[in-house]
Amino acid sequence: MTLQTGPILLATDLSARGDRALDRALQLTKELGTQLIVLHVMENHATTARLTTPVWRRLSTDHKALAERELAEDLSAADVPTEVVVVSGDPLTRIMETADSYGCSLIVTGIARDETLGRLLLGTTVEKLVRQARQPVLVVKNRPRRPYRDVLVATDFSAGARHALRAALQLVPNADLTLFHAYDVPFQSKHTPEDAVSRRFHQEAEQSAREFITGTPELAGLPQPKVVLEAGQPETVLSEYSFIHRSDLVVTGTHGRTGILRTAIGSVAERLLESLPSDVLIVRVHDED
């Protein structure tokens, strides 16, 4: 699934942390010359509401009017077309319904700052959203001090990875791209020099990278992306690389039918959502549907 030129949907819980996602969504909307749809879902579940809703809103007798007013104030200085939608119901269902009904090309959301609460939210709405939504999902964690420049694309050189790369190119066409691939070197016999075997696996990864780049016509005419190949578990070596190089955005793909895949690229998606400080773009692949 790659990005088209439809509106961007921001799903917000009106928390202070969500302001980061709002600012990033506004910045991307302006860059892409599209419209921003801002959605707030009034949850029906009392327990969830107690955890995620500020006290001053829980005490309000008219949550919908209050949410609409606050969002209108937040968007009053926006220099892009915007529309506010406030509805009741299950957040996951309402987000997907709204994204589909408006023909949105991207869903933007944030997560809670508190680690425990963040895990709770990832385990419910955000994690389910990246499994089920038709659109790529951008999870914003950082303040958008600048447009995305250094973009790290996790790849296993599969068709799914190419979908993710294409989405990255459409979302941030002028960014500096790094293609990151982690390859596994299996246990070796004592009769085979480990360094020779490792070199062979590295050479095979280099060949796969060349074929992957050649087979992605969207890269034609663009600066050649940097390619990083490292031996090890992807969720470990990619995390280390992104921490050290402070990537603005990490992009990865995932399949929908089985949720986040238990393969290289899927493990990376899950780990990135939970642990990395960078923003993360998750691109769902529909091949299995």
From TrEMBL:
Signal peptide: none annotated. The keyword Secreted does not apply. The keyword Mitochondrion does not apply. InterPro entries: Rossmann-like_a/b/a_fold, Universal_stress_UspA, UspA. Keywords: ATP-binding, Nucleotide-binding. It holds the Pfam family Usp. Residues 7-141, 148-284 form the UspA domain. Coiled coil: none annotated. Belongs to the universal stress protein A family. This is UspA domain-containing protein.
